[in-house]
Automatic annotation (TrEMBL):
Region (Disordered): 1-26
Boundaries of every DSBA-like thioredoxin domain copy: 31-207
Protein name as catalogued: DsbA family protein
Alphabetical list of Pfam families matching this protein: DSBA
Gene3D superfamilies: Glutaredoxin
InterPro entries per UniProt: DSBA-like_thioredoxin_dom (IPR001853), Thioredoxin-like_sf (IPR036249)
Organism: Streptomyces peucetius
Amino acid sequence: MTDLTTTDTAVGGTAEANGQADPRLPAAPDTIAVYTDLNCSFAHVAIHRLHETRRRLGLDGRIRFDLRAFPLELFNREVNARPGVDSEISVLGALEPDAGWRLWQGPDWTYPVTTLPALEAVHAAKSQSWHASEQLDRALRRAFWAQGRCISQRHVILEVAEETRAVDVAALAEVFDSGTARPAIMAQYESARDGRVDCSPHLFLHDGTDSANPGIRARWVNGDFGTGYPVIDEDRPETYEKLLTRAAALL
Protein backbone atom coordinates (compact mmCIF):
# COMPACT_ATOMS: atom_id res chain seq x y z
CA MET A 1 0.00 0.00 0.00
CA THR A 2 1.06 3.58 -0.46
CA ASP A 3 2.57 5.05 2.70
CA LEU A 4 0.88 8.35 3.60
CA THR A 5 3.34 9.31 6.34
CA THR A 6 4.43 12.92 6.25
CA THR A 7 6.95 14.91 8.26
CA ASP A 8 7.93 18.54 8.40
CA THR A 9 11.25 19.35 6.84
CA ALA A 10 14.07 18.46 9.22
CA VAL A 11 17.40 20.24 8.91
CA GLY A 12 20.66 18.37 9.36
CA GLY A 13 19.08 15.38 11.06
CA THR A 14 20.52 12.66 8.85
CA ALA A 15 23.92 13.96 7.83
CA GLU A 16 26.12 11.20 9.27
CA ALA A 17 25.89 8.35 11.73
CA ASN A 18 28.79 6.68 13.56
CA GLY A 19 31.31 8.43 11.34
CA GLN A 20 29.97 6.87 8.14
CA ALA A 21 28.33 8.81 5.32
CA ASP A 22 24.57 8.42 5.21
CA PRO A 23 23.72 6.52 1.98
CA ARG A 24 20.40 8.34 1.71
CA LEU A 25 22.02 11.71 1.13
CA PRO A 26 22.96 12.89 -2.37
CA ALA A 27 26.65 12.92 -3.20
CA ALA A 28 26.76 16.60 -4.18
CA PRO A 29 25.14 19.84 -2.96
CA ASP A 30 23.50 20.45 -6.33
CA THR A 31 21.44 17.23 -6.07
CA ILE A 32 18.25 16.25 -4.25
CA ALA A 33 17.78 12.54 -3.60
CA VAL A 34 14.15 11.57 -4.20
CA TYR A 35 12.95 8.16 -3.00
CA THR A 36 9.74 7.19 -4.80
CA ASP A 37 7.83 4.47 -6.55
CA LEU A 38 6.39 5.06 -10.00
CA ASN A 39 2.87 3.87 -9.16
CA CYS A 40 2.57 6.02 -6.04
CA SER A 41 0.11 8.88 -6.54
CA PHE A 42 1.70 11.01 -3.82
CA ALA A 43 5.04 10.64 -5.61
CA HIS A 44 3.40 11.69 -8.89
CA VAL A 45 2.33 14.93 -7.18
CA ALA A 46 5.79 15.38 -5.68
CA ILE A 47 7.68 14.90 -8.95
CA HIS A 48 5.36 17.30 -10.76
CA ARG A 49 5.84 19.93 -8.06
CA LEU A 50 9.61 19.47 -8.00
CA HIS A 51 9.93 20.03 -11.74
CA GLU A 52 7.50 22.93 -11.90
CA THR A 53 8.96 24.69 -8.86
CA ARG A 54 12.53 24.24 -10.12
CA ARG A 55 11.52 25.76 -13.46
CA ARG A 56 9.68 28.66 -11.81
CA LEU A 57 12.65 29.45 -9.56
CA GLY A 58 15.05 29.42 -12.52
CA LEU A 59 17.00 26.47 -11.12
CA ASP A 60 16.90 24.20 -14.17
CA GLY A 61 20.45 23.08 -14.86
CA ARG A 62 21.57 24.03 -11.34
CA ILE A 63 19.62 21.59 -9.13
CA ARG A 64 19.34 17.93 -10.16
CA PHE A 65 17.05 15.15 -8.99
CA ASP A 66 18.57 11.77 -8.13
CA LEU A 67 15.53 9.52 -8.54
CA ARG A 68 15.86 6.52 -6.24
CA ALA A 69 13.72 3.44 -5.82
CA PHE A 70 11.28 3.02 -2.96
CA PRO A 71 9.67 -0.15 -4.38
CA LEU A 72 6.35 -0.60 -2.62
CA GLU A 73 6.04 -4.15 -3.96
CA LEU A 74 9.17 -5.14 -2.01
CA PHE A 75 8.20 -3.33 1.19
CA ASN A 76 4.65 -4.71 1.16
CA ARG A 77 5.49 -8.06 -0.45
CA GLU A 78 2.56 -7.69 -2.84
CA VAL A 79 1.41 -5.77 -5.89
CA ASN A 80 0.36 -2.18 -5.22
CA ALA A 81 -3.36 -2.92 -5.39
CA ARG A 82 -5.33 -1.26 -8.14
CA PRO A 83 -8.41 -0.48 -5.93
CA GLY A 84 -6.17 1.52 -3.62
CA VAL A 85 -4.43 3.29 -6.47
CA ASP A 86 -7.76 4.09 -8.15
CA SER A 87 -9.15 5.51 -4.90
CA GLU A 88 -6.35 8.06 -4.80
CA ILE A 89 -6.71 9.49 -8.29
CA SER A 90 -9.59 11.91 -7.77
CA VAL A 91 -8.19 13.06 -4.42
CA LEU A 92 -4.57 13.59 -5.51
CA GLY A 93 -5.59 14.66 -9.00
CA ALA A 94 -7.46 17.58 -7.49
CA LEU A 95 -4.21 18.81 -5.90
CA GLU A 96 -2.23 18.87 -9.18
CA PRO A 97 -4.51 18.33 -12.21
CA ASP A 98 -1.73 19.25 -14.65
CA ALA A 99 0.40 16.31 -13.53
CA GLY A 100 -1.86 14.09 -15.66
CA TRP A 101 -4.37 11.56 -14.33
CA ARG A 102 -6.89 9.07 -15.64
CA LEU A 103 -8.56 5.96 -14.26
CA TRP A 104 -7.18 2.78 -15.78
CA GLN A 105 -9.16 2.00 -18.95
CA GLY A 106 -7.52 -1.24 -20.08
CA PRO A 107 -8.37 -4.83 -19.12
CA ASP A 108 -7.23 -5.91 -15.68
CA TRP A 109 -4.60 -8.23 -17.14
CA THR A 110 -2.81 -5.27 -18.74
CA TYR A 111 -2.35 -3.44 -15.42
CA PRO A 112 1.32 -3.18 -14.35
CA VAL A 113 2.20 -5.93 -11.89
CA THR A 114 5.67 -4.53 -11.10
CA THR A 115 7.55 -1.25 -11.40
CA LEU A 116 11.02 -2.74 -10.92
CA PRO A 117 11.93 -2.78 -14.65
CA ALA A 118 10.90 0.86 -15.01
CA LEU A 119 12.81 1.85 -11.88
CA GLU A 120 15.85 0.09 -13.31
CA ALA A 121 15.49 2.01 -16.57
CA VAL A 122 15.38 5.34 -14.72
CA HIS A 123 18.60 4.41 -12.94
CA ALA A 124 20.18 3.12 -16.16
CA ALA A 125 19.49 6.48 -17.82
CA LYS A 126 21.73 8.17 -15.25
CA SER A 127 24.69 6.77 -17.18
CA GLN A 128 23.72 9.26 -19.92
CA SER A 129 22.88 12.29 -17.77
CA TRP A 130 20.80 13.45 -14.84
CA HIS A 131 18.50 15.15 -17.34
CA ALA A 132 17.89 11.89 -19.23
CA SER A 133 17.03 10.10 -16.01
CA GLU A 134 14.73 12.89 -14.81
CA GLN A 135 12.88 13.06 -18.12
CA LEU A 136 12.43 9.30 -18.36
CA ASP A 137 11.15 9.14 -14.79
CA ARG A 138 8.61 11.90 -15.39
CA ALA A 139 7.52 10.43 -18.72
CA LEU A 140 7.01 6.96 -17.21
CA ARG A 141 4.79 8.46 -14.52
CA ARG A 142 2.68 10.24 -17.10
CA ALA A 143 2.56 7.07 -19.22
CA PHE A 144 1.09 5.18 -16.28
CA TRP A 145 -1.09 7.79 -14.58
CA ALA A 146 -2.37 9.77 -17.58
CA GLN A 147 -2.08 7.36 -20.51
CA GLY A 148 -2.83 3.98 -18.95
CA ARG A 149 0.25 2.22 -20.35
CA CYS A 150 1.79 -0.91 -18.84
CA ILE A 151 5.17 0.37 -17.69
CA SER A 152 6.13 -3.14 -16.53
CA GLN A 153 6.94 -4.07 -20.13
CA ARG A 154 10.30 -3.53 -21.79
CA HIS A 155 8.93 -2.30 -25.11
CA VAL A 156 6.69 0.26 -23.38
CA ILE A 157 9.61 1.56 -21.32
CA LEU A 158 11.72 2.00 -24.45
CA GLU A 159 8.83 3.62 -26.35
CA VAL A 160 8.40 6.12 -23.52
CA ALA A 161 12.15 6.76 -23.53
CA GLU A 162 12.01 7.50 -27.27
CA GLU A 163 9.17 9.96 -26.72
CA THR A 164 11.20 12.01 -24.25
CA ARG A 165 13.74 12.98 -26.95
CA ALA A 166 16.17 13.29 -24.07
CA VAL A 167 17.24 9.64 -23.89
CA ASP A 168 19.56 7.69 -26.19
CA VAL A 169 17.28 4.67 -26.49
CA ALA A 170 19.87 2.31 -27.97
CA ALA A 171 22.29 3.10 -25.16
CA LEU A 172 19.52 2.75 -22.58
CA ALA A 173 18.50 -0.64 -23.97
CA GLU A 174 22.09 -1.86 -23.81
CA VAL A 175 22.49 -0.94 -20.14
CA PHE A 176 18.97 -2.03 -19.24
CA ASP A 177 19.35 -5.42 -20.92
CA SER A 178 22.69 -6.05 -19.20
CA GLY A 179 20.96 -6.09 -15.83
CA THR A 180 23.61 -3.87 -14.29
CA ALA A 181 21.01 -1.44 -12.90
CA ARG A 182 19.31 -4.03 -10.67
CA PRO A 183 22.02 -4.03 -7.93
CA ALA A 184 21.65 -0.25 -7.59
CA ILE A 185 17.89 -0.57 -7.19
CA MET A 186 18.34 -3.18 -4.48
CA ALA A 187 20.95 -1.03 -2.75
CA GLN A 188 18.50 1.87 -2.73
CA TYR A 189 15.84 -0.43 -1.30
CA GLU A 190 18.26 -1.57 1.42
CA SER A 191 19.16 2.02 2.28
CA ALA A 192 15.46 2.77 2.75
CA ARG A 193 14.53 -0.22 4.92
CA ASP A 194 13.87 -0.31 8.67
CA GLY A 195 12.27 3.12 8.71
CA ARG A 196 15.29 4.98 7.33
CA VAL A 197 13.08 6.29 4.55
CA ASP A 198 9.53 6.93 5.67
CA CYS A 199 7.52 6.65 2.51
CA SER A 200 7.20 7.39 -1.19
CA PRO A 201 8.04 10.25 -1.69
CA HIS A 202 10.84 11.19 0.71
CA LEU A 203 13.40 13.86 -0.22
CA PHE A 204 16.95 14.32 1.10
CA LEU A 205 19.31 17.26 0.63
CA HIS A 206 23.10 17.14 0.82
CA ASP A 207 23.15 18.88 4.22
CA GLY A 208 20.83 16.31 5.81
CA THR A 209 17.60 18.22 5.35
CA ASP A 210 14.80 15.76 4.61
CA SER A 211 11.06 15.85 4.02
CA ALA A 212 8.66 12.92 3.71
CA ASN A 213 5.57 13.46 1.52
CA PRO A 214 6.45 17.17 1.48
CA GLY A 215 3.71 19.51 2.60
CA ILE A 216 0.94 16.90 2.61
CA ARG A 217 -0.82 15.40 5.62
CA ALA A 218 -3.27 12.64 4.77
CA ARG A 219 -5.23 9.81 6.37
CA TRP A 220 -7.41 6.92 5.28
CA VAL A 221 -11.15 6.88 5.94
CA ASN A 222 -13.54 3.88 5.96
CA GLY A 223 -10.74 1.35 5.73
CA ASP A 224 -7.09 1.07 4.80
CA PHE A 225 -5.46 1.26 1.37
CA GLY A 226 -7.54 -0.73 -1.12
CA THR A 227 -10.74 -0.50 0.94
CA GLY A 228 -11.17 3.07 2.10
CA TYR A 229 -10.02 6.32 0.55
CA PRO A 230 -7.55 9.08 1.42
CA VAL A 231 -8.47 12.45 2.90
CA ILE A 232 -6.03 15.35 2.66
CA ASP A 233 -5.90 17.20 5.96
CA GLU A 234 -3.21 19.66 4.88
CA ASP A 235 -1.53 20.63 1.64
CA ARG A 236 1.32 23.14 1.59
CA PRO A 237 2.83 23.20 -1.91
CA GLU A 238 5.09 26.07 -0.83
CA THR A 239 7.19 23.39 0.91
CA TYR A 240 8.79 22.65 -2.47
CA GLU A 241 9.97 26.22 -2.87
CA LYS A 242 11.56 26.04 0.58
CA LEU A 243 13.33 22.78 -0.24
CA LEU A 244 14.64 23.95 -3.60
CA THR A 245 15.68 27.33 -2.20
CA ARG A 246 17.61 25.57 0.55
CA ALA A 247 19.27 23.27 -1.97
CA ALA A 248 20.28 26.28 -4.05
CA ALA A 249 21.79 27.92 -0.96
CA LEU A 250 24.15 24.95 -0.62
CA LEU A 251 25.76 25.62 -4.01
